[in-house]
Specification:
heterodimer, A: 114 residues, mainly beta, seven-stranded mixed sheet, four-stranded antiparallel sheet, 11 strands, B: 119 residues
Chain lengths: 114, 119
């Protein structure tokens, strides 16, 4: 158990819908990273927050957004869902921007868009 | 942009034997970190080992060790005395050292190597 929690574990929804994925980092960690794992794209970085502020963006679609709240939990919002958004979404947390800043992953949310 | 290449999509090893998984990367940075993550069938991503680029000594964690060749940009993982529980996808990952000051340490992953352990 990494100490990072993600809810829900599984999510099945229809095209065009909107969903919210939730992540709670390990105690003491200030950074939250979101990654997407799909068969065709592999593991890709989406976005990072540090202590409530957006720090970096990766290959995140405009239909996707995220935020980190004062209690440091983070939510990833996916809207206007398409079949291709079906993937495993991971949240990872770390202490913050200092080396080595190892990232610990949550169990993931499996999103299926039908 | 950095890239990470794992050229072995699948590998197998006999139980109790040793196996080496390959990883190469491309970067113009001098300060960076390399990681190996394990993803068993449960899909959980588990950190296996870390290597700092500034360290010449290869990292070791119990049965797991790396062969880090900085000039060749190679970072292989050796698993000794392989166990059934080692069967998983293994991902090599690169992380900038952050010298740019951006403060973001996102990981760039390879495509992974699926390791099977034969009893």
């Amino acid at each position: 158990d990494s100490g990072v929690t993600q809810t829900p574990k599984h999510l099945i929804t229809a095209t065009g819908q909107r969903v919210t994925l939730r992540c709670s980092p390990r105690s003491g960690d200030l950074s939250v990273y979101w990654y997407q794992q799909s068969l065709d794209q592999g593991l890709q970085f989406l976005i990072q927050y540090y202590n409530g502020e957006e720090r970096a963006k990766g290959n995140i679609l405009e239909r996707f957004s995220a935020q980190q709240f004062p209690d440091l939990h983070s939510e990833l919002n996916l809207s206007s869902l398409e079949l291709g958004d079906s993937a495993l979404y991971f949240c990872a947390s770390s202490v913050g921007p200092s080396s080595p800043d190892e990232q610990y992953f949550g169990p993931g949310t499996r999103l299926t868009v039908t | 942009a950095q890239t990470v290449t794992q050229s072995q999509p699948e590998m197998s090893v006999q139980e109790a034997e040793t196996v080496t998984l390959s990883c190469t990367y491309d970067t113009s940075e001098s300060d960076y970190y390399l990681f190996w993550y394990k993803q068993p069938p449960s899909r959980q991503m588990i950190l296996v080992i870390r290597q700092e680029a500034y360290k010449q000594q290869n990292a070791t964690e119990n049965r797991f060790s790396v062969n880090f060749q900085k000039a060749a940009k190679s970072f292989s993982l050796k698993i000794s005395d392989s166990q059934l529980g080692d069967a998983a996808m293994y991902f090599c990952a690169y992380r900038s050292g952050g010298a740019s000051g951006a403060g973001s340490y996102q990981l760039t992953f390879g495509k992974g190597t699926k390791l099977s352990v034969i009893p």
